[in-house]
Structure formats: structure tokens, C-alpha cells
Amino acid sequence: MGRERMSSVDTAWLRMDSPQNLMMIVGFQVFDSPVSYQDLCSLFEQRLLSFKRFKQRVDSDASGAWWINDRKFDLARHFIRVSLPAPSGQKEMQALVAGLATEPLDPERPLWQFHLVENYQGKQALVTRVHHCVGDGIALVAVMLSLTDSSVAGAAARKEAPSFGEGDGALETNPWRPYVKSFERGTLSAIQATGSIWSKSMEVIANPDKLVDYAQMASQVVKDALQIALMPDDSATSLKGVPGLSKAVAWNEPLPLDEVKAVGRALGASINDVLLSCVAGALRNYLASQGEVAETCELRAMVPVNLRPLDRALELGNHFGLVPLSLPVGIANPIARLREIRRRMDGLKGGYQAMLAFGVLGLVGMAPKPVQTYVLDLLASKATAVMTNVPGPQQAIYMAGSKVSRIMVWVPQSGNVGVGVSILSYNGGVQFGLITDTGLCPEPQQIIDGFAPEFEKLVLMLGLLPAEMFIDSSLDPAVFEEALFGAVGSA
Q: Which residues have CB under 8 Å from 157's CB, separation 6+?
């Protein structure tokens, strides 16, 4: 009774745990005003536990993995109160989060846990840990948004929240749909890498007479499969190696999202391109401080790409693929680096690599664990980092009557990958988070602190351009681009 087979993809994520890298999505949020532990308990009971996965544990046998109801479920086992020594600031909070990121979840219980933290900068924070087999970033952010309201009044009006759970039509009856819809719109721009290809795939399947299109797709699939199979190693740096058992986390003050958008528009690039350029620049500066940067240096990041229909964001499970993005950290000029990242991202938009990676996860999830470990460790050895970009709500949200002033999420790594980069936007700001193995990078704050200066360099270089380049809307885009890079090419 209550026994449900876990999908092969989710099983792959379940079995990906290692002592060095636990497959947990870790996040935290800060409350502006005091929030009651009991009020949060009531909120979780009414809303979070509407999702059956949060009351189910995993049972594994020779035939695979299963979700079963936890008959001994106790919310108190999953919602813990902790207190930092007062006064405590960012350093103490980072140590707590890093410690929790290396602490396994109880396999005999549902695979999630929240910690309400007291005395963080005189406020409270909520640290969340959810195993990746429960859901991917898109689904889990949507679930977390379902726990929030747009105002204190909204929270008071929903003391008795309706149950909405998972399944067909769940999103339509979800009272928090406005948040999820806003989240979906942001996600659409973040997953352009495969969106057009996915649509074309569905069109060909629905219209099999389009054999020419089908042949072109098949050719591209073969090409992408070979690129994955024959992918060379990226550059050897101190960030690449065998991780140990200790982690460190870091985060920055948010960048204004409107400014990031403005820079992107001025340079003919997407928000994502601008942010990735800042990441590459910050990594370059860090490696230069270690005496390691060469002009040909490339760091490969595995980037999750959503493959889930966005009207089913609240359904749990994993529905994403991974695409390998090589960051040109060897390029010193910020404008030239941005241009190269844009070129590489444009190249990914025409491929099937995300869907192929999703298929590989499904296959290895059905294979014996040693086979899965071999295949995934081989792929992980080709990368230095995992990097995710998740757009959050662009207005303030409230949980249990308290405004949430900051949200941060850290992406897990697999195999011997020792660096995780997370980008999350919230309430008009964009925040970077970093989690690293301390043996490979003991002070990730050194990298994080370089993100804002890299963005400022882009702004400064824009100031070198003549104003007529932006005023003259009739200027041919190709002419504009040549003038743009000619003006700053020697900077």
C-alpha cells in the first residue's frame, strides 16, 4: 500500500550519492522579522505535506527503488531548531550551511530537512536540504514558492490552505499559481538552449511527413552524441581534482537586475550571457591569483537545462538534461569574453545534448550501480564545475507572515566535480552562490567577491563607446557590433 516505483532518472540521482558529493539541493532564506516555529510547522503541514513525496521514504531492492509512505512520519524529525552563538554573521552562517551540505539525510525517512536558524545577524534564517531524487531545481523552487504569499495579509487569509498536491490539473487549482507563472516566464528565457529544438521534435513527431526535418534532426543527434562521447578534458587547474569530505560555501550581495538587463540590451546579449561572462571573469581572476591562468585556459561547466513542460512545474521528479559549456576564462577582455560566451550559447541552442544527457540518466538508472558510476564519473571528469541559473520571483514574498529578504540555493556536484556555481534572481536582484571542496578551493569567497567587479568592467567599457552608437536605431546590427568591439578591442 502506497508503494510507487521511482523513475529511472530519479533512481540515477538517488544512487549518485558519494561521501565526497551528496546529491542534496541546499538553500537558505533570511526573514526580515521574527517568525514563529509553530507557525512554520502549521504552514508546512498545510502546504508542503500536500505533496506526497514529502511524506514518503525510499525503499530499494534488487528490482530498483520505490517510494513508500512513511508510517512513522514525524514533522519534528524534519524541521529542526538551531541557534548560532550570538552575535553571529555571514562567516558563522556559511560554516553551518557547509556542514549541513556534507551531512547525509536519514535514508529511513523522507529525504528532506529544514533548519530554523536563530541569531543570524540578529534575524532568523531557514536552511533547506532536499535530495535531488525528490525533484529538480525547477520543481523544488516552485514547491518553495507555494509556501509563500505576496503579503502579510495574504498569509493571514490562507490560514486554511486548500490541498493541491501533484498530478494533472494541480497547477490550475493551485492558489499560488501567480508566483509559479511569474517563475515560468523567467525560466523560459533561461532555457533557450533547447527550447526551439524540443518544439521542432514535437512537430516532427506530430507530422511524420516532414522527413527532411527528421533527417536533419537525426544528423544533429548523431553529431551531438559524438561530441559528448569524444569530449576532451578541460584545462587542468587547482579547481579540478579529487574532492574530499569538507565543503565551503559563499555568496555575494545581489547585483541590480535592471542594470544587468540594460548592459545585456546595450551589448546585444542575454541576461544569462552577461552573468556567465561575470562568472568566467571571476574565475579567471581567482586562477590568476594562484598563478594558473593561460590565454588558452578553458573551464567546462555542466549546465542544467529544463525539459519539463512549464505548466507542470509543481510536479516533482527530475526532468532536465545537462549541456557542457566551456567558459573562456583565458580571455582577458570582458567584452571579448562576453562575445565568445554569447557565440557558444548560440551554438548550444541548436543541439540535442540536453535531451541526450537526460536519456543517458534514464538508461544508467536502470543499469547496475557500478555501470552507472562508471558512465557518470567519466562524464564528470570532463568538467570542473556544475552551474545553474534559476530565476526566482521578482517581487518580495512572505512566509508565515514574515518578509523574505534573501534567497540562496547551492547546486550539488557529482563524481569528482568540486565546484558548484548557482545564480538566482529575486526581488530585483541577482545573487551568486558558490560551493567548493575545501581541498580544491578553501576560500570560495575570493571567487564570489570578483563577480561584481567583473560586471562593473562591462559597465565601464560601455562608457567608452560614443553615444550615437546607442541613439541611432537605424544602425545595422552587424555594423554596430563591429564598431562596438573595435572601440574596446584594445582595452
A: none
Amino acid letter, 283: L
DSSP3 helix / strand / coil % (the chain, rounded to 5): 40, 25, 35
Write the CA distances from 463 to 266, 468, 491, integer angstroms: 11, 12, 12
Q: Exposed, middle or buried, 309 (CB in 10 Å: 0-12/13-18/19+)? A: exposed
pLDDT tens figures, 396-406: 999 999 999 99
Query: What SS3 state is found at 182?
Result: helix
- From CA 102, how far away is CA 241, in angstroms rounded? 18
pLDDT of residue 158: 54
Helices (runs of H) and strands (runs of E) counted in the chain: 18, 16
Decide if 194 contacts 217 (C-beta within 8 A).
no
CA distances from 110 to 98, 411, 421, 423 (A): 21, 20, 27, 27
Q: Which of 86-95, 106-115, 336-345 has the highest mean pLDDT?
A: 106-115
Biggest CA-to-CA distance, the chain: 71
Asked if 447 and 385 count as a contact pair (C-beta separation under 8 A), the reply is no
Grid cell in block for residue 336: 571579448
- β-strand 429-437 against 255-256: which pairing, if any? antiparallel
271-290 average pLDDT score: 93
Q: Is the dihedral of CA 199, 205, 211, 217 positive or negative?
A: positive
CA distance 330 to 340: 11
SS3 letters for 450-476? CHHHHHHHHHHHHCCCCCHHHHCCCCC
Strongest mean pLDDT among 177-186, 192-201, 207-216: 207-216
Q: Give the per-residue pLDDT at 68.
A: 95
pLDDT tens, 355-383?
Answer: 677 777 777 777 888 888 877 887 778 88
At 467, give phi and psi (nearest 5°): -60, -30
Helix (H) or strand (E) run with residue 11 in it: helix 8-14
Q: Tell me if 362 sits within 8 A of 338, measured CB to CB.
A: no
* C-alpha closest to that of 465 among 488, 438, 448, 433: 488
The pLDDT of 243-267, averaged and rounded, is 92
Helical segments of 191-303, H only: 192-206, 211-229, 257-266, 271-289
Q: Among residues 174, 216, 342, which one has the least CA distance to residue 269?
A: 342
